Batch of 2 targets.
Target 1
Amino acid sequence: MPGTSGKGREILIVEDDPIIASLIKTFLKQKDYSVVNMVDSGEDALYAAVTSFPDVILMDINLFGRIDGITATRLITAMLKVPVLFVSAQDDDATFSRAAVAEPAGFIIKPFTAKDLYSNIEIAVRNNEIVKSGKNYDPGPFKRLLRNSLSALDAYFILDQQGRILFLNPYAEKLLGTDRYKPIMISISRYMSFRDTRSNELCTDTFKYLIREAATLGARHYYGLVMADGSLRQMSVSASTIHNNTDETIGYLVRIHRLTASEIIK
């Protein structure tokens, strides 16, 4: 296994120590793996996974930014079906227990050798290929939706169970008037307020009363997004629940679409 050539394998490196990240990249290039990106935070890991859809992700646990490696891995494995290998110096029971919840493809303990990387990557890729070839394999809708979100003229968000923003696409950045870093781990209710266009009643908690309702009952079409000047933009709000392999809810994918005149329900 360690002698297997990595040619054609695309790897995303998520590591906040630039020396270790550079070492990993050097090891991978020696076996002809392609490093698609090197990032140092959980939020960048999630965004880079959506933009590149690598074959394997090498993920540290403690990272820069507001999202750690375990949170990022939970979403990546559930939504994108990309195998993630943790690479960490933490090898205590508590860390292993936390890491297991994210359903990684393996755990490499620092310090590691080049052979540790090669063998674990090839095993993860092979196991993922076996799963994908199974007759009951279901890739789910999220990979396609997230790929399309990068160029879509709709706002897309990934939220955690409490409604905090973990990912937003370029259109959402424009809609909120911010970059994609500032809203991370802040409730979407802090950034977006809606009014019911039928009753003019203000929705007091966007996540609790609009997004979770949309995830349960279907898209909501009678709401206007309150803009900075007080005007309303009528929107369609839809949401899908994100589940892990044990059917636990770990987040929500939200799509907010500005309705055209012909789409507005009278």
Target 2
Amino acid sequence: MINIEEYVDRTAELINLPLDPEHRPGVVVNFERIVEIAQLVTEFPLPPEIEAAPVFEP
């Protein structure tokens, strides 16, 4: 499993985003929630008759 605290720290560093130490715990908690929600979506089984969406070409 991903280390969310390390992910938050490295991502903030990568995009040069100052992260106030006071706000860091809240950011970590929100990313933990995002991971839980994303798992619900990515692990949802789709029936075989579902077709992929067409590619948009402007």
